[in-house]
Amino acid sequence: MVNFQTSSAIANHEPGWSIEHKHNSFEISAVFEGKGMFYTENLSKEIQEGSIVLIQKNIHHCYKAITPIRFGVLMINQLPQGTAQFFEQLMITNQTKIITLSSYELYWYMSLFKNWLRTISQPLLKEKDLLIKNWLDILLLHLLQHAHTEGKVISVSQAADYIRNHLNQKIVINDLAERTGLSESTFRRYFKEEYGVSPKQFQQEYRMAEAKWLIRTSDKSLQEIGEEVGFLSLHSFSSWFKKSENINPSEWKKLQQTGI
Predict the structure, then answer these.
(1) CB-based burial of residue 249 (10 Å sphere; 0-12 exposed, 13-18 middle, 19+ buried)?
(2) N or C: at which end does the chain have fewer Cβ atoms within 10 angstroms?
């Protein structure tokens, strides 16, 4: 396997900062905080929290900070075989591309990125090239899974964030549509186009994901977990869980603990 050369950091810059350059590396720069501008010969676009800038090798480009801005920057001289396919899927034959993550999706990318930095900072890494490839795959797959490019989808992704952050509350579709500035019918259509399910189904899937995560990782009782994902009683939570998984949550928990 090739010895990959990477450059990665979280960089902070003040308003008025700018850099204009090109380099013999693939670049993935995520805006974690703040606002700025990104320029190439054929592109001029504002970037802000959640913007992900993807750049092919040897492309002349420029960044300028409008407000204090914080980037997560990753550059690599050669994309590993397989990983390059994920990058190309994001680029769709473009030399530069700006995609967007919602606040929820950006939070998880930031967590992954910080763990990537910690991992590659360790001394005497074994199987270093393989480790780098696997981490790059994870980061790019996260972007492929969650990236948005159209304004209409961005507004819908904000509604999806709201659902994920309020799993214990009842969904009122008209309220969500108002948050996005869309009619209810348009909101439903855009949401289904982006996520493949209705807002209600989306909430149910994330309720289940959160419930399973809490069962696996916390010391909370099933009653407490049920309340966190929107159920007032243990009976209603258990019935809902069993209907979806064909097993009640207490039995599912034992399976996770024993592996049997």
Answers:
(1) buried
(2) C
The pair phi, psi for residue 27, each rounded to 5°, is -130, 135
Among 257, 255, 247, smallest CA distance to 218 is for 257
Q: Which residues contact 218 (CB under 8 A, 6 or more apart)?
A: 225
Angle between the N-to-C axes of helices 151-165 and 199-217, in degrees from 0 to 180, rounded to the nearest 10:
50
Spatial separation of the C-alpha atoms in residues 225 and 208, rounded to whole Å: 11
pLDDT of 156 reads 86
- What pLDDT was estimated at residue 150? 54
> What average pLDDT does this structure show over 96-123?
91
Q: How far apart are CA 165 and CA 227, in angstroms?
A: 14
User: What is the overall mean pLDDT for the chain?
Assistant: 90
Q: Is the pLDDT of residue 120 over 80?
A: yes
Q: How far apart are CA 4 and CA 188, in angstroms?
A: 44
Query: Is a pLDDT exceeding 60 seen at residue 242?
Result: yes
Give the 3-state secondary structure of residue 97: strand
149 pLDDT above the threshold of 70: no
Non-local (6+) Cβ contacts of 105 within 8 A are 50, 142, 146, 157, 161
- DSSP letter at 40? E
Average the pLDDT over 50-66 and give the result. 95
Q: Is 105 exposed, middle or buried (0-12, 13-18, 19+ CB in 10 A)?
A: buried
**What amino acid occupies position 116?**
W
Sign of the dihedral through C-alpha 67, 118, 111, 26: positive
Tell me what pLDDT residue 152 has.
52
DSSP codes, 241-257: HHHHHSS-HHHHHHHHH
